[in-house]
């Protein structure tokens, strides 16, 4: 079953493709099927109640990308 991963960005900033590529790389390396979506519209992002950007959402739980940017940390949250 494919996991839906959402990357939250600030609406004033451009989308950072590096984050999406990194999440997809970690998922592929560990045989985890993912669908990654970039969100930056204020209405979409505010639904998750965070003010830390960029952020990664897995199973409706929000993780700060700044704190979980290593491959090891990303793998932990993908397996959460």
CATH topology annotation: Glutaredoxin
Which sheet architecture does the biggest sheet show? 4 strands, mixed
- What is the mean predicted local confidence, pLDDT? 92
Number of domains: 1
CATH evolutionary superfamily: Glutaredoxin
Structural class: alpha+beta
| Proportion of strand residues | 25-35%
Shape descriptor: globular
Query: From the alpha-carbon coordinates, what is the Rg to the nearest angstrom?
Result: 12 Å
Strand order of the largest sheet: 2-1-3-4
Number of strands: 4
Which sequence of SSEs, written as H and E, runs from N to C?
EHEHEEH
CATH class: Alpha Beta
Discrete helix count:
3
The low-confidence parts are none
Gross CATH architecture: 3-Layer(aba) Sandwich
What proportion of the residues is helical, as a percent range?
A: 25-40%
Give the terminus-to-terminus CA distance. 14 Å
Describe what you observe in this structure.
The chain has one domain (3-78): Glutaredoxin (3-Layer(aba) Sandwich), CATH 3.40.30.10. The chain is globular and about 35 Å long. Helix content is 32%, strand content 25%. With 80 residues, it is of the alpha+beta class. It has helices at residues 17-29, 42-46, 71-78, and strands spanning 3-8, 34-39, 55-58, 61-64. Strands 2-1-3-4 form a 4-stranded mixed β-sheet, with helices on one face. The mean pLDDT is 92. Helix 1 (17-29) packs across helix 3 (71-78). The protein is built from 3 helices and 4 strands.
Task: Please give a handful of descriptors for the protein shown.
single chain, about 80 residues, alpha+beta, Glutaredoxin, four-stranded mixed β-sheet, about 25% strand
């Amino acid at each position: 079953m494919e996991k839906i991963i959402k990357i939250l960005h600030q609406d004033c900033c451009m989308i950072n493709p590096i984050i999406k590529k990194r999440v997809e790389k970690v998922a592929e390396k560990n045989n985890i099927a993912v669908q990654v979506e970039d969100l930056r519209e204020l209405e979409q992002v505010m639904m998750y109640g965070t003010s830390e950007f960029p952020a990664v959402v897995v199973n409706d739980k929000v993780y700060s990308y700044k704190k979980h940017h290593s491959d090891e940390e990303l793998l932990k949250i993908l397996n959460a």
